[in-house]
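chain below, 280 aa
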Amino acid sequence: MLPGGFTRESGFPQKSLAATAEKTAIAELAAGLVEEGEAVVVGAGTTTQELARRLARVAGLTVVTNSLLVAQALAHANRVEVVMTGGTLRGSNYALVGSGAEQSLQGLRVSRAFLSGSGLTAERGLSTSNMLSASVDRALVQAASEVVVLADHGKLGTDTMFQTVPTELMTRLVTDEPMTHDDRGSRELQALADQGVQISVAGGPAGAGTGPERSYQPGAAQGPGHGGPGGHAGHGPGAGRREPLPGQRRNRPLRNGGTGTPPTLRSAPTPPSALPEGFR
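prediction:
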């Protein structure tokens, strides 16, 4: 623990052994958000590594990443194109960082960014303990129309030094259910939902086995009949809805003048004119 209550970053061996069942459930749920032919960015981390293993089955997918672990998980997926950033290798998490990584992301636009980190609070959003990693993660966020955060229940309520994804830029959080006695985790999830973040919860309470996906609704107290898992948010049409905060990417104006979710950005096939003579 650092002065001020901020936590230190664990090494890769410790991270890879922590909350493995929860990360698997989160990755499985998050993979269901990705469509065939889509273009996404995937950040570094052990949870995103689990996601990458499941993205290998998505046909026509393009994945941009600064993580060697993500790239390795997709290396033999013949229906997935992997694009690596440049940068300097950070050996503790096998990620490419620095100005080279950030510059290679300039001008990039994809449908979704999938990111994980060291801590998540409703006040500051996603954070990490390393300045270089945080800077690249912020560049990944800027490249995406939607931002999906992957964080197991152990990171809820934990704050670390460098902010990567402010709460107002988070589109969705995919997590697992906090322990039954973990009031702090439940309060953080509800606070995130109240700020407009879509919450997808994989399985039942941690340690209780896998169950159906759950969701937290904005403006709802937790518990049966109050809009929490197994409850209801308000009464009548539109109850519990909340307008996005300034700067949020949800329901941004579209080019036709309406509002809604930005269209899915897909991988473009190589035009025949760009192919060598013998391959046309």
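Residues 3-7, 206-212, 223-248, 250-259 have pLDDT under 50 and may be disordered. DSSP finds seven helices and 13 strands in the chain.
thats it, cya
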